[in-house]
Design brief:
Elements (H helix, E strand, L loop, with lengths): L10 H16 L10 E5 L2 E4 H18 L7 H21 L9 H16 L2 H8 L3 H26 L6 H10 L7 E2 L2 E9 L4 H20 L5 H8 L14 E2 L5 H9 L9 E3 L2 E11 L2 E9 L5 H19 L5 H8 L15 H7 L12 E2 L11 H7 L11 E4 L5 E12 L2 E2 L6 H27 L2 E3 L6 H5 L5
Antiparallel strand pairs: 1-2, 1-13, 3-12, 4-9, 4-11, 5-8, 6-7, 7-8, 10-11
Helix pairs in contact: 1-2, 1-4, 1-6, 2-3, 3-6, 4-5, 4-6, 7-15
């Protein structure tokens, strides 16, 4: 539910979120020693246990990647944790809001993985020499620290922007041997059709939520129970509960509903780009809203889903026998308002708009790499699978897909062109070169900022853990 934000996440968050649980099950524990403080940054300390766990997680992750580092993992872990602590402390100084997502969900998933690896809670508590609730709170503190660190770094780098002139200078100055190879790209067009019964399905979704709301208000069922049973949001497994956040971090209709609630109250039905919600405000502390919600989307019967598919198959046959062009069919029949007037040509317009970074024609792209298809790239994987069976100019049969909001629809695609692999050029690959130039500029700005903060913030490192690498990096003053 939080708005999408382009962030350069710290390596620390990635390691602890994905690798640390595996490290505890796959990596032998280091020589047991009494825990001690090995470094202090601002008001935060780094314990030997924290350093050791991070180093073990690094080893596991590098092994999975097939990568061998020439840096001692303890030294690499120390540097990463020093950076995290500095970012965290500066975030507190600057009153930066924590924007690391659902920390509660991450903590629960992490701890549950460790418990499963240990063979149960009792064995886990025996290994860790502490009750599970104490361990959970320790992990929560670490994850919140990581989230603040990510937010602080994002605050620094997201202020950096770039103009076309800088992109051109970057391209002219870069070693031509360093220019990236752009893989095979696809240009395609589509015609989309939602089920004609969409309004009926939306009404069914509203009625389901009205029934749930009535059951909560009359005390028949707890909100959290219904959320676990019916919500399609990732928060469902936690009873619909979300991390406290300012209203500005939620999409506008959701935020407006929150602002009208008092603790304990349940909202009317709220429609957003994600679907339909009911919201329960748990409490409000300062400007942060702590709430639960239930999210559902319209659902369709098989017959309702197949009706537009049959229609699109008929349209595809007309196009193949030259009774109409694909462009004419897109204009007459497509439900995609952003493409129907340009022959159905697919662009990244929808992805940019969803991310809130739409910048006119300059950022619009109509060429897509293989990795642009799928959950991370924004374009449906089903599109790629259909395109792989086509020759240039051919039209696919209909298939089921979803848009960025998860709404179900039918679609046909036409493969317009295939651009073979080539070295990036300013004329053909401006957007990807702009990304490279921006990342470089952000990295330089961040390194300058970090260097200044190292000088102004209190940093102490135990003599036993100092080395030349840390001195060269400016951590030892």
């Amino acid at each position: 539910m939080m708005r999408n934000i382009i962030v350069m996440a710290t390596m620390v968050a990635t390691i602890f979120a994905t690798g640390n649980a595996q490290a505890q099950s796959q990596q032998p524990r280091r020589q047991v020693m009494l825990d001690k403080v090995v470094a202090v940054v601002g008001g935060s300390s780094i314990l030997y246990s924290e350093l050791s766990e991070y180093a073990d997680a690094l080893v596991v992750q590098y092994r999975q990647m097939g990568y061998t580092s020439d840096v001692d993992p303890m030294d690499e872990a120390m540097e990463a944790l020093l950076e995290q602590k500095l970012l965290y402390n500066q975030a507190l100084i600057d009153s930066v809001d924590m924007m690391g997502g659902d920390v509660t969900a991450r903590v629960e998933a992490y701890v549950q993985t460790l418990v499963d690896n240990a063979g149960g809670i009792q064995e886990f508590e025996r290994r860790e020499h502490m009750p599970i609730f104490n361990y959970r709170e320790m992990v929560r503190g670490r994850f919140e620290e990581q989230a603040y660190a990510q937010s602080m770094k994002s605050e620094v780098v997201n202020k950096v922007t770039i103009v076309p002139g800088e992109v051109e200078r970057f391209y002219r100055r870069i070693d031509k041997d360093s220019l990236p190879m752009i893989g095979e790209q696809y240009v395609y067009a589509h015609i989309t059709k939602f089920p004609a019964s969409l309004k009926d399905a939306q009404q069914r979704a509203r009625e389901r939520l009205l029934d749930m709301r009535e059951r909560v208000i009359t005390g028949q069922t707890q909100f959290a129970v219904l959320a676990r049973m019916y919500s399609i949001d990732g928060s469902a497994m936690y009873g619909g509960e979300m991390e406290p956040a300012p209203a500005s971090y939620f999409v506008r209709p959701f935020a407006e509903a929150l602002e009208k609630l008092k603790p304990g109250q349940v909202s009317e039905i709220v429609e957003t780009e994600f679907g339909f919600h009911i919201i329960e405000l748990i409490d409000k502390i300062g400007d942060r809203y702590h709430c639960r919600h239930i999210l559902i989307r319209p659902t369709f019967t098989r017959d309702e889903l197949m009706q537009p598919a049959y229609q699109l198959d008929s349209i595809a046959r007309l196009i193949r026998c030259d009774s109409m062009t694909f462009e004419e069919a897109a204009l007459r029949f497509s439900d995609d308002a952003s493409t129907k007037h340009n022959g159905g040509i697919v662009s990244n317009h929808d992805v940019l708009a969803r991310m809130g970074v739409y910048d006119g024609a300059r950022l619009t792209a109509t060429r897509f790499l293989k990795e642009d298809f799928g959950a991370q790239g924004g374009k449906a994987l089903e599109d790629y699978n259909a395109l792989m069976n086509l020759k240039i100019g051919e039209v696919s049969d209909s298939y089921q897909s979803t848009d960025l909001m998860g709404n179900q629809m039918s679609k046909i695609v036409k493969l317009v062109d295939i651009i073979p692999p080539h070295v990036a050029s300013l004329e053909d690959d401006y957007i990807r070169l702009e990304e490279m130039a921006l990342v470089k500029k952000q990295e330089e700005a961040y390194e300058k900022w970090l260097s200044e903060k190292k000088q102004s913030m209190y940093i102490y490192i135990d003599p036993d853990y100092r080395n030349e690498r840390l001195r060269e990096k400016g951590w030892i003053k």
